[in-house]
Amino acid sequence: MKQIVTLVLFIFSSLVAFSNDTQGIIRGTIIEDATGLTVIGANIMVNELGTGTTTDLDGAFALSLEPGTYTFTISYVGFEDIVIKDVEVKPAEISVLGEIRMQDSALQLKEVVISARAVRTTEAALVTIKRKTPAMIDGISSSLMKLTGDGSAVDAAQRVTGVSIEGGKYVYVRGLGDRYSKTTLNGVDIPGLDPDRNTIQMDIFPTSLLNNIIVSKNFTAEMPADFTGGLINLETKDFPEDRIMSASVSFGYNPSMNLNNEFLTYQGSSTDWLGFDNGARGLPTGARAQNIPIAFSSQYSADQVNAFVSDFSPVLGTETSTSFLDYSASFSFGNQKKIGGADSNVDKGTLGYMFSLSYKNDYTQYDDYFNGEYQRFAQSDAYELRYANTQDGTVSEQSTVIGALAVLAYKKKYSKIRLTAMRLQNGEKRAGQFNIDNSGEAVGQSGYLGIRDNLEYNQRSLSNILLNGVHTFGNNGWELDWRVSPTLSTSDDPDIRVAGLSVGGPKGYQINAGEVGNPQRVWRSLSETNIVGKADLTKKYKFKNNDAKLKFGSSYSYKVRDYEILTYNWVNAGGQLQFEEYDLGFLMSPENIYPNGLNVYYQSGNGNPNPNAYNSYATNMAFYVSNEAELLPNLNVIVGLRGENFTQFHTGGSGDNFLDNEKVLDAFDLFPSANLVYAVTENMNFRMAYSKTIARPSFKELSFAQIIDPLSNRIFNGSLFDSYSDWDGNLVETRINNFDVRWELFQNRGQMFSVSGFYKQFDNPIELVRIPESQTSADFQPRNVGDGELYGVEFEVRKSFEFISAALKNLSFNTNITFVESRIDMTDREFNSRLNYERVGESVSNTRQMAGQSPCVVNFGLVYNNPDAGLDAGLFYNVKGKTLEIVSSGLYPDVYLNSFNSLNFSINKKVGKDQNTTIDLKASNLLNDSVERVFSSFNAADQYFTRYSPGISFSLGLSHKF
Amino acid sequence: MNFRIFAATAIVFSMLFTACSSDDEVITPVDPVDGTEDIVVTENISTDTEWCDNVYVLGGRIAVEAGATLTICPGTIVKGQAGTGVNATVLLIARGATIMAEGTADAPIIFTSVADNISLDNVAAGEFASPNLDPDFNGLWGGVIVLGNATISASNESDEDVSEVQIEGIPSSDANGLYGGNNDEDNSGVMTYISIRHGGANIGEGNEINGLTLGGVGSGTVVSNIEVVANQDDGIEWFGGTVNVSNAVVWNVGDDAIDTDQAWAGTLDNFVVVTPSGNCFELDGPEGTYVARHTIQNGTVRAIFDGRVIGGSLINTDSNTPVDMKNVHFLAPLDDAGEFLTITDDKFDSATFENVTFDTDESNLAAIMEQGGAIPAGISAGGSSAADISKFQWTWAHIAGGLDF
């Protein structure tokens, strides 16, 4: 902490030192209006002085001038001149003109005269990029994130067309499941933080560190080929044009969650508030030994066993406390400085830096959390479902996120190098207590009542460095962009505790191994290191007098993952235990630890080698070439070809099924893509695209791993196990053909209208299949299933109400709607199992929708934006259609995620001198909807699989620019 | 100033990447107390193997694979290490493999936990009881599983018949756990004078390992003179198959004593059950369309009330249980307080009884039937112990006085 204070003072003093200069600085960026691209080498002339400068590779310029008022003239070959009047230079201050848009000289006027008024970054810039980009993209900029008040990337991303959120963490595009989405950071691969997922948990990225989120929905050659629904790129903040120093704080309140004196928690560690465990939940010393100290052993003395068992935390149950308000704070500062002094005539370059720190602490409690398992009856005319197991109770979670970002950049006229470092740290402490009702009437159930406490802590971290260089080699049309980016990510769940008692027996409660079971403790850890290097070369040239572009490049990525689960079972030697009250503290009290009282000790659930552990690495060597040219008048054609050589190695398994660093995947694929953009008019495009993409099996899927989920007891089996009658152990990649069309109309001030259609065809899609040979446990394995396809249509409108009345020019709405129809050919096994459970009057088909594929996604926003009054307000609605989540296994029907109607309101008002202070107010889930997943069967009432209510929450924030 | 910014940035970076890094724990092994010269077995057995004159320690789930024969000499002790889940220690005789474990009344073969201090010298001296473990300590290791190629009556969750399935307690990824076939005369070898103790490790919620599991074992296999002591789950459980078992003692198990499933088609002859928990008999019907009957005869059963926390039944059948029970005597079916263990299912559509007697008054008999059902033909009050106790002199249960009725 002291280091940070010193550092802050240090940089602060450098800012103050700079402000001693008397000259003022004017900065601006010149962009081509039609394309949104920056203009390199444009002339900026100060009319009063007859001197000037030219723009650099970012289209940026900076001029140091004596205080006064000036007029600038900006010129560039082929573009009309722009004259900017009333440019005011203040002593020792930096003024930013913002983006100055140059238009083709073939159009209208010879000269455009505007007054100097800073135009802030808005959605308009993003719309311009979107208009001319070869790929079909959508995105959200930092300014809209600010308006909507979204705190994390996941909240912000759901405003993007066709995007939906799963589990509050994962972003899906066009409703395609996790397998078909991909997330990159600053254009390079980053490791996920969840061993079971392809995409990264986006809730840990604070929006204050992000510049924008861009979602690409179709593939072009320079992108990685392993996405199908969408490629989500998070771009962190670059260095600022202006000196910035800002701080913000906010507080949030949810009546059912905050200031709640029945908030469930448990004794954690003293550093939980910093998002990590300080070792209090660490693995007891010696717990990794193949033979841990056990009772009655000749190998270990009673004292050794007692010391070992006592090393486990005695806490097995929840306790209540009072939750505080949600709160967050962030601070950032940055500046840029010309090296050698602002007035130096020698170009020694410009140095920019930025540092941003954010902290967030949230409390969540669901008092009505419900989990259920429901079955169908064997009789085909018994429609209603019956319960096999239900759990209802309370789940509480306290989440802490710390984010830090540092950017250092150096720019000369035709070169820029930037170094970005980011660290995210997130800790989530969960405590839950459930009443369990297991029905002996249901198939495969033993029938009991019980109470169970779950204690969990998940800590995740991500450390990323990006070194990026851009070089334009003068103004000859060549540009080189290279990136090197190592990332280290970890996700640890130290000491997950699951403990409970069965209700029954002569005293009221008992431990019964066949019912609620013995207490269990789990340590789960994942670490992944990723290193990516890539280089892209672009050559701009003229084809039939029109701009054309040739791009080629290559990339190499290496990622390695270590994964391990260690489990320990609480045991007592001797008979069944009975208790008069529900008190879990008794189970680990010192007087009951071996050789005393109940003779409590732990048994290890970890084999040697541990089938719940693996190490995998993968390399991907890629190259591509693509060309963009206007082959026919107004028809821009972009064709590209990418080659990827992918290899994957695995170490893990046990017994005969053990791999020692063996190659499990080695494939070279070519991915062609073609994009046609026909400019019907200057503001209207018609696009068509084709591409081939791939979805590869994950590390875990191509393995002999055998992973037991401690909370659900479901067992995951790697695909390499081949001892089954209907599976040969040969899991192959899914290859996808993608077809897209889009018509789009752009209007001024960021207004637009678009209609898109898409079709995707899947060869060998992978789904998680229940293993039929397994009778007494729920075993699953990833397998290739029948081929699939989907098609869909998307609409997007951004429109100002100005068309009704000029008085409404500040009011606008934006809406986007996606409809998707998907189809998977069922395997014979699935079809037969559905036929066996066909109800009277039902007609079972041999196709179904793809799991995880939403049939529709709707986003709607009503936005009021008045820059003069400094007032922004928005009402946002988001919903997705009932989505198949878990495919039926016959006995258990399909599970669907019901629509969640999310309605949020936010308003912010800028006040004070220069509108430097912003107050914002936000209200979420105004419709007070609940999250519901349901079992759905023909002619039967839906039954809950999970259900909980987030409630309505409010937040109030204050931010100030110094 | 440039230098200062660079230096500051370097400090920021170093903080970013050093802060919060979790320390890798250094594992210091606990010094083990000096043990005996035991042979630890950690690999599956794929060639013919003999275990003689030593204590063999199961270091995990050890399968005798198809084609291999494991011969265990009389007087040998096999000890399972402690473990749960996939780490549970099990001796698994896979389909197509052979076990030749021919103990004798003077030199039985003992399967127990590594926590048990019993030695070869103890056995040689005729001291078959554990020197340090109480006879109700359970769940210390897994158990013994024998699998074969005989017919089973099983179905998948879609109600379709299947001829082979995975045995409970073994992950489905281990192909050695498959059982069932069409060879009813299948021969998995010989198991005589075997005592299996302190097993039944927990492998998941509601999922444990039986003392002796017989899945699809054929009639060519010899299983006789078997004792199961203090298993956390069931004593002996059959999943289909045609194997006969004779002279069996099940003592102090945590769940059901005798458990049958999937249309076992054999005979259990001359047995004693003494159990403080669970059902004495948990007899289920076929799960597929194949139906076959089994016989349970000449046995004495004693349900212990003292300390019993789970209800349990004397006989728990389903309406389709294909059992013929003959000459079975239940000692003391009610405790001092006059409470009964009951017979759970009164729909004995498929079960038959002959000379099944309860050591109680005629007037109490009706109360033994749960739900007040009619007393089936062949069940009566009175009678006397029906098992031939003389066959069990070698067992720990007998030595400890557990069979003094």
Features:
heterodimer, A: 962 residues, mainly beta, Immunoglobulin-like, Ferric Hydroxamate Uptake Protein, Chain A, domain 1, 22-stranded antiparallel barrel, 55% strand, globular, B: mainly beta, nine-stranded parallel β-sheet, 4 helices, 28 strands, 33% strand, disordered N terminus
Description:
The complex is a heterodimer of chains A (962) and B (405). Chain A is mainly beta and 962 residues long. Chain A has six helices and 51 strands. Chain A has a 22-stranded antiparallel barrel. In chain A, strand 2 (43-46) and strand 3 (51-54) form a beta hairpin. The two termini of chain A are 23 Å apart. The model of chain A is unreliable at 4-20, 106-110 and 115-124 (pLDDT under 50). Chain B has 405 residues and is mainly beta. Chain B has four helices and 28 strands. Chain B has helices at 2-18, 120-124, 365-368, 396-399; strands at residues 39-41, 49-51, 55-58, 61-64, 69-72, 77-80, 90-93, 98-102, 109-113, 143-147, 154-155, 161-162, 165-166, 178-179, 189-197, 212-215, 222-229, 236-239, 244-251, 258-261, 267-275, 281-283, 294-303, 313-317, 323-331, 342-343, 352-358, 379-381. In chain B, strand 11 and strand 12 form a beta hairpin. The longest helix of chain B has 17 residues, at 2-18. Mean pLDDT of chain B is 84; it is low at 1-36. At the A-B interface, helix 1, strand 20, strand 21, strand 22 and strand 23 of A face helix 1 and strand 13 of B.
Largest interface: A-B, 113 and 86 residues
Which sheet architecture does the biggest sheet of chain B show? Answer: 15 strands, parallel
Number of helices of chain A: 6
The shape of chain B, in one word, is globular
* Helix content percent band of chain A: under 10%
**Average pLDDT for all residues of chain A:** 84
**Rg of chain B to the nearest angstrom?**
25 Å
> Helix count of chain B, per DSSP?
4
The global form of chain A is globular
